[in-house]
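Shape matters. As here.
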Amino acid sequence: MIGEKIIIRGGRVIDPANGVDASVSVCIADGKIEAVGDVPKGFAANQEIDAQGQIVCPGFVDLCVRLREPGQEHKATIASETAAAAAAGVTTLCCPPDTRRVIDTPALVNLLRERADGAGKARVIPIGALTRGLLGKELCSMMALKGAGCFAVSNAYAPMENLLVLRRALEYAANCGLLVIVRPEEPALRNRGCAHDGAVSSRLGLPVIPYSAETVAVAQTLVLAEQTQARVHFGQLSCARAVAMIAEAQSRGVKVSADVAIHQLHLTEHAVDGFDANAHVNPPFRALADRDALREGLAAGILQAICSDHQPHDPNAKLDAFPATEPGISSLETLLPLALQLVESGVLDLSSAIARLAHGPATIMGLDAGTLSVGAKADICLFDPSLEWTASGTDWLSRGVNSPFYGSAFKGRVTKTLLGGRVVHSL
């Protein structure tokens, strides 16, 4: 805010982008970082925030958050889900194009940005559609989408008509300087499946999605990415073989990156036991070996980001027989505590976990975010790693309560979130 000066004192400041991990002060002036460390001479704060016993870090950047607006406001709204994002320490979020009015024109991009600005809780970065209506046939005007503020394009879950269309799309995106986000899935191999092809689905009699549905799509896209020199990001990987394929491509200099959804780092195929529809996700939870490979890929930097893959649903969406329920988890508010569980179990150190939540995803998207650099926007998260809470009731802000973690006890919670130097969430 113009004229506002804030100082955050007493906290452990962790900014992986700048190699900072120390108990120092953070000074904010006019919505931007003024200093990290020594307080500048003559700096007179209008507001002081006591961060004793807390972690002070860049606001998180989430690469995959479905807001449901426009078109599915019975599930959630921009106002409700950006409030949940603020409570999760997420200051910048990317919205996939598969809203019920597909984000395939600058007008839709502008609509989302205006509504998000009106809500005032988080920065919303719309991801433009790769093809008109996500029908996989006619390419969108990517340059126009870029001009409206898109940093990336994607066809979300919708398949391309054929590989020639995908190749042309990658060529066009490369010429426009846009990132292409791919949710890898071969539709013929998915074949109306809903669970991992393993022991649990066999016992329950559930139709399956084999891991080859993911790896075949990854292989095809990698070949075309290398040929076209496009920047490609694989979203929400689920299996060990896909991680190995990404690692091999990266070692050869192919311009590819990848992320993983936070729940895939914790749950396995056994989560669907008892036909728990809240564990119905796409891609499905896979074998323990896959989960462990995802963790190893994250620690090694092959997967540079953790996302929430937030998909809020109305209660009816999860009330049918398991295969007929809608996939997806409401997962923004469990993003941080589940990441802290990875730290506690030794998968990542705290600085690396914050890097995968903030600077890593910002770098993938090419965003000026995820850092406490002097002059950067003061998008800041404060959290207490020892604070115990239960993910339910008034402590849950998302409209969607469709989560296998809903009602669970957690340790670690966001206490304050600042967006451009303005407090948008406070316990």
